Amino acid sequence: QVHLVESGGGLVQPGGSLRLSCAVSGIAFDTREMRWYRQIPGKQRELVATITAGGSTNYADSVKGRFTISRDNGKNMLYLQMNSLKPEDTAVYYCYRERGPYTKDYWGQGTQVTVSS
Question: What 3-state class would DSSP assign to 31?
């Protein structure tokens, strides 16, 4: 059974940092692109960051220079280091594994990040 389990969310003050983790099990990890999305209630899910199987990264303009996506293929782990957090970063953050040639795509259950003083 495939599981994507996020952790590391919480409440942080503006300007603070958090590191999100996503543990992937039950499916190959190192061969597929992984992504972080976020969603505010009532709004569409937004792509935050992408990392390819080869380690190339891409970021939404709103987080560029503040967030860093990384992966540890040996541990089947995806990370999102978030620095200089702003109230507008408040959302539920989801990790995502892209579909493969014989598999569908997968989502985690989400972790809440709240940036507030």
Answer: coil
Using CA atoms, how far apart are residues 73 and 31, in angstroms rounded to an integer?
Answer: 9
* 115/67 Cα distance (integer angstroms): 14
Helix ranges, 1-117 (H):
none
Find out whether 12 and 91 touch, Cβ atoms under 8 Å. no
Phi, psi at 88, each rounded to 5° = -75, -5
User: Would you write out the chain's pLDDT as a tens digit for each of its 117 residues?
Assistant: 999 999 999 999 999 999 999 999 998 888 899 999 999 989 999 999 999 999 999 999 999 999 999 999 999 999 999 999 999 999 999 999 999 888 889 999 999 999 999
Tell me how far apart the terminal alpha carbons of the chain are, to the nearest angstrom: 40
* Residues 51 and 57 sit within 8 Å (Cβ to Cβ): yes
